[in-house]
Amino acid sequence: MFYRPQDGHGLPHNPFNAIVTPRPIGWISTRDVQGRNNLAPYSFFNGVAYTPPQVMFASTSNKDDQGDTKDSVANIRETGVFCVNIVEYAMREAMNASSATLPKDTDEFAAAGVQIAECTEIDCARVADAPAALECRMTQIVAIEGVSNFVVFGEVVGVHIRNDTLVDGRFDVRTYHPLSRLGYRDYTRVTELFELARPDD
Predict the structure, then answer these.
(1) CATH assignment of the domain containing 57
(2) Each residue of 20-52: pLDDT tens digit?
């Protein structure tokens, strides 16, 4: 089959999300200028550079009480900071609960029953028990094609790593099984690894 997205795919469900998989989930925490915390998962998320370390996530819809975007982007516009919390399999239900569309003054940490810790380098909350958390200063927000599509880039200025995830000096994903987004309502988790040496190693 072949289709042009502008013409539609003719299938019961859009296959695009199922094709671009698996995708890591950035559990983004922010705080507005009134001091209210927000927590929301984004599956258009990834690391984009080593030096300095940088990440990105994309928000692709809006809320009535935030105008052209959602709470996360609105808060980052105001404060210039955010934290990426890594999602482990054991926290899948809490992550999903935090995806609910709630009023902008609602604390998703409380709504989802997630324990809060304070960031070190930025004024922002983080998920206390996350395997890792990346404290970020926003470098740019880029509007891309489409309604309410924004890509947020941030430089990582602080890194929290849960002690039990370090095995022989390496951050070992098998200790927590990172959750990844597939298409539709499907998810998966990483449980095993294999290595491939590059040809020029």
Answers:
(1) 2.30.110.10
(2) 999 999 999 999 999 999 999 999 999 999 999
